[in-house]
Write a structure and sequence with these properties.
- By secondary structure, the chain is α+β, with helices and mostly antiparallel strands.
- It has one domain: HPr-like (Histidine-containing Protein, Chain: A).
- The protein has three helices and four strands; from the N terminus they run E-H-E-E-H-E-H.
- A four-stranded antiparallel beta sheet has the order 1-4-2-3.
- Helix 1 packs antiparallel against helix 3.
- The radius of gyration is 11 Å and the shape is globular.
Length: 85
C-alpha cells in the first residue's frame, strides 16, 4: 500500500463535480483507492461515498492505493488533485 496526504485547495472542496471526476478516474485504475478524512473513509470508485466525507477547502484527506500499479496510480491521482482539488 502507498499513500499520500493532500490539503484541498479549491473553494468548494470535494463537491459533486470533482467527486464524479475522481470516481471516473479511480475506475480506470487497477488498484483499490481509499480516501480518508479523520476517522471516515470512502472508496474512491464510489462518488456517493466520496461525498459523505464532506471534505472542504483547507482540510486534509489521505489517499491510500493498493494493487498492481501503485506508483502509477498514485501519480495519476496526485496530478488529478493538483488540477481539480
Amino acid at each position: 500500500m502507498k499513500s499520500f496526504d493532500y490539503v484541498l485547495k479549491m473553494k468548494e472542496g470535494l463537491h459533486a463535480k470533482p467527486a464524479m471526476m475522481l470516481s471516473k478516474l479511480a475506475m480506470t485504475l487497477k488498484g483499490s483507492i481509499v480516501v480518508r478524512k479523520r476517522n471516515m473513509k470512502a472508496n474512491a470508485k464510489n462518488m456517493s461515498a466520496l461525498l459523505t466525507l464532506r471534505a472542504y477547502q483547507g482540510e486534509e484527506v489521505i489517499f491510500e492505493v493498493t494493487g498492481e500499479n501503485e506508483d502509477e496510480d498514485i501519480k495519476k491521482i496526485k496530478e488529478f488533485c493538483e488540477r481539480n482539488l
